[in-house]
Specification:
The chain is mostly beta strands. It is 3% helix and 49% strand.
Length: 129
């Protein structure tokens, strides 16, 4: 079974940084995509950034380009989301998600939560002004 374990949320002041981690298990090949989504109170869940575990291709939503960086760790089944210059509007529950997919699919699977197949529990990010 595929499992995703997200961690790293917390409270940070505006302008500060946080790093989220997602550890994936259960995939039988490298053809999968891991991504980060967030859901603010009263709003829909949206895709922020995804990475292909086969070739490192990435996707970023316009709202986080230049501030957030997604990367895979040395363990290869771990993905990080480095979040810099955090704003109060970044406050949300952040979810790690994954799906079996080739590298070419990362750009169309990521923007919508419907493109993903597996979900971890959310981790809360709070940004104080």
């Amino acid at each position: 079974d595929v499992q995703l374990q997200a961690s790293g949320g917390g409270l940070v002041q505006a302008g500060g940084s946080l790093r989220l981690s997602c550890a994936a298990s259960g995939f039988t090949s490298d053809d999968y995509v891991i991504g980060w989504f967030r859901q603010a109170p009263g709003k829909e869940r949206v895709g922020l950034s995804c990475i292909s575990m086969s070739d490192g291709s990435t996707y970023y939503a316009d709202s986080v380009k230049g501030r957030f960086t997604i990367s895979s760790g040395n363990a290869k089944n771990t993905v990080y989301l480095q979040m810099n210059s955090l704003k109060p509007e970044d406050r949300a529950l952040y979810y790690c998600a994954a799906v079996e997919a080739t590298a070419g699919e990362v750009h169309w699977r990521c923007p919508s939560p419907y493109g993903m197949g597996y979900w971890g529990k959310g981790t809360l990010v709070t940004v104080s002004s």
